[in-house]
Amino acid sequence: xxxxxxxxxxxxxxxxxxxxxxxxxxxxxxxxxxxxxxxxxxxxxxxxxxxxxxxxxxxxxxxxxxxxxxxxxxx
Length: 75
Hints:
The chain is mostly beta strands. Helix content is 12%, strand content 36%. It has one domain (4-62). Strands 2-1-3 form a three-stranded antiparallel sheet, with helices on one face. A hairpin with a 2-residue loop joins strand 1 (4-13) and strand 2. The longest helix is centred in the middle third of the chain and has 9 residues, at 42-50. The protein is globular and about 35 Å long.
Protein backbone atom coordinates (compact mmCIF):
# COMPACT_ATOMS: atom_id res chain seq x y z
CA UNK A 1 0.00 0.00 0.00
CA UNK A 2 1.39 3.39 -0.98
CA UNK A 3 1.80 6.15 1.61
CA UNK A 4 0.92 8.88 -0.86
CA UNK A 5 -0.95 8.63 -4.15
CA UNK A 6 -1.54 11.66 -6.36
CA UNK A 7 -3.68 11.07 -9.43
CA UNK A 8 -4.17 13.46 -12.34
CA UNK A 9 -3.62 16.49 -10.06
CA UNK A 10 -4.24 20.04 -11.26
CA UNK A 11 -3.26 23.01 -9.08
CA UNK A 12 -3.78 26.66 -9.99
CA UNK A 13 -2.95 29.81 -8.05
CA UNK A 14 -4.32 33.19 -9.18
CA UNK A 15 -5.20 31.73 -12.59
CA UNK A 16 -1.68 30.35 -13.13
CA UNK A 17 -1.45 26.58 -13.64
CA UNK A 18 1.28 25.07 -11.46
CA UNK A 19 0.49 21.38 -12.04
CA UNK A 20 -1.63 19.87 -14.77
CA UNK A 21 -2.39 16.14 -14.77
CA UNK A 22 0.43 15.22 -12.34
CA UNK A 23 0.52 11.72 -10.87
CA UNK A 24 2.77 10.20 -8.22
CA UNK A 25 2.90 7.20 -5.93
CA UNK A 26 5.28 6.92 -2.96
CA UNK A 27 5.74 3.54 -1.34
CA UNK A 28 6.78 2.95 2.29
CA UNK A 29 10.53 3.28 2.90
CA UNK A 30 11.11 5.62 -0.04
CA UNK A 31 12.77 8.98 0.42
CA UNK A 32 12.06 11.84 -1.94
CA UNK A 33 13.20 15.41 -2.45
CA UNK A 34 11.18 18.27 -3.87
CA UNK A 35 13.22 20.82 -5.79
CA UNK A 36 12.40 23.64 -8.16
CA UNK A 37 12.81 27.36 -8.70
CA UNK A 38 10.96 29.98 -6.72
CA UNK A 39 7.30 30.14 -7.66
CA UNK A 40 7.25 26.68 -9.22
CA UNK A 41 4.60 25.41 -6.78
CA UNK A 42 6.53 23.35 -4.23
CA UNK A 43 4.86 24.91 -1.19
CA UNK A 44 1.48 24.84 -2.92
CA UNK A 45 1.85 21.11 -3.58
CA UNK A 46 2.74 20.46 0.07
CA UNK A 47 -0.24 22.57 1.19
CA UNK A 48 -2.52 20.47 -1.04
CA UNK A 49 -1.08 17.22 0.32
CA UNK A 50 -1.62 18.49 3.89
CA UNK A 51 -5.22 19.38 3.02
CA UNK A 52 -4.77 23.14 3.52
CA UNK A 53 -5.94 23.87 -0.03
CA UNK A 54 -8.20 21.92 -2.37
CA UNK A 55 -6.87 20.79 -5.75
CA UNK A 56 -8.50 22.17 -8.89
CA UNK A 57 -8.67 18.65 -10.28
CA UNK A 58 -7.55 15.11 -9.57
CA UNK A 59 -7.09 13.50 -6.17
CA UNK A 60 -4.61 13.21 -3.33
CA UNK A 61 -4.66 10.27 -0.92
CA UNK A 62 -2.33 10.34 2.08
CA UNK A 63 -2.34 7.12 4.10
CA UNK A 64 -3.61 7.37 7.67
CA UNK A 65 -0.30 5.95 8.88
CA UNK A 66 1.76 8.57 7.05
CA UNK A 67 3.20 11.51 8.97
CA UNK A 68 3.92 14.84 7.37
CA UNK A 69 5.74 17.75 9.00
CA UNK A 70 6.33 21.23 7.60
CA UNK A 71 8.03 24.41 8.67
CA UNK A 72 6.29 27.62 7.58
CA UNK A 73 8.23 29.89 5.25
CA UNK A 74 6.94 33.06 6.87
CA UNK A 75 8.08 34.10 10.35
